[in-house]
Write a structure and sequence with these properties.
Order of helices and strands: HHEEHEHEHHEHHEEEEHHHHEEHH
Oligomer: single chain
Number of helices: 14
CATH class: Alpha Beta
Strand content: 5-15%
Radius of gyration: 27 Å
Shape: elongated
CATH architecture: Alpha-Beta Complex
CATH topology: Spore Coat Polysaccharide Biosynthesis Protein SpsA, Chain A
Structural class: alpha/beta
Distance between the termini: 97 Å
Largest sheet: 6 strands, mixed
């Protein structure tokens, strides 16, 4: 009997202490509840560390919290693809780029909020997202690539180039481009240049194509400080890559007058056509390039040799953003 009374007293005392604790919390935080405080704490944890979530395939794998990976840090270099339209070739293409570039190259996918779910459904891509080797970043809601003009305008605004800080060497690639794993060269071999891409045939313009191109971020920002894309276009400036190339040649001529050589630190250094075609081919052929761009469109006669040298070109998208004018 005495044991029962003692147990009853302990239960009552425990309940009384719990009631006092709840009322103390209620008085200190009149607008909060235990549940809301817990939810806020859980949310703060979720936004500070990656939290695994069930994959769409239901295979026991987990995909990362993409929000937590959108602002991961990068160092001196980064590979970037900007794509608002999800295509089935994107995930294998991006994974191939990551494999060829190696672990020292983070890959940043800039896309729309609507496309994030499609990227997150890949278990293979999810492993790279969790490690930070591949990151997804959201584009401004106003960005929509409907034609070449919209791409040109976006690439000549500061937003992207400022968001890529502190990386200096930026490899821009598109869904219709590819790096060839058989190549003896690497992207790092071209770090001396401010801009390098597939050389453009003279009848189509000047400079190097930007669809697969390596650029120095600080040089791009310096140009955007001096010139405005919308008000300074001249003949030969139809596309953003040609506009950047022509501005760089203008700076290079100014430096030549001052006796500054391209090889000097901080000076504009552009590759010759012979060097550029070893980096990438599009309208001008080269037997063993590091990369290719729009080969389905321009180099149909080279497909047989590409089957042996760069069979990965088959992952390239055949669809591309059409120009609003004729001639490219």
């Amino acid at each position: 009997m005495e044991d029962r009374r003692r147990k009853s007293r302990n239960v009552i005392l425990s309940a009384f202490l719990i009631l006092i604790f709840i009322w103390t919390i209620k008085l200190r935080f009149p607008q909060s509840t235990i549940l809301s405080m817990y939810s806020q704490h859980a949310e703060s944890i979720a936004t500070s560390v990656p939290s695994p979530q069930p994959s769409a395939a239901g295979d026991g794998q987990s995909t990362p919290n993409l929000k937590t990976l959108s602002n991961s840090t990068i160092s001196t270099k980064a590979a970037v693809i900007v794509e608002t339209r999800f295509r089935t070739n994107l995930v294998p293409l991006i994974l191939h780029f990551s494999g060829v570039l190696g672990p020292s190259w983070p890959i940043l996918i800039y896309t729309s909020a609507e496309s994030i779910g499609q990227f997150s459904s890949s278990a293979a891509l999810g492993r790279y997202l969790r490690s930070g080797a591949i990151q997804i970043r959201l584009l401004p809601q106003t960005v929509l690539f409907t034609n070449s003009d919209s791409v040109n305008e976006f690439m000549t605004e500061k937003w992207l180039w400022e968001d890529l800080a502190p990386a200096e060497h930026i490899l821009i690639f598109q869904s219709d481009s590819m790096l060839c794993a058989n190549a003896a060269r690497s992207v790092d071999d071209y770090f001396a240049y401010d801009l390098v891409g597939a050389p453009i045939a003279k009848k189509l313009g000047t400079g190097y194509n930007g669809g697969l191109s390596l650029r120095k971020r600080t040089t791009i920002l310096n140009i955007l400080e001096r010139w405005d894309w919308k008000t300074t276009q001249k003949d030969g400036d139809r596309f953003e890559d040609q506009w950047y190339f022509n501005r760089m040649t203008t700076i290079q001529k100014e430096e030549e007058k001052e006796g500054i050589q391209p090889e000097e630190e901080g000076a504009i250094n552009l590759p010759s056509m012979e060097v550029a075609r070893t980096f990438s081919v599009e309208t001008i052929d080269y037997p063993h390039p590091l990369g290719v761009h729009q080969v389905h469109r321009w180099l149909k006669e080279q497909m047989l040799s590409l089957d042996e040298w760069c069979p990965e070109y088959k992952l390239c998208s055949k669809g591309y953003i059409k120009d609003t004018h004729e001639g490219r």
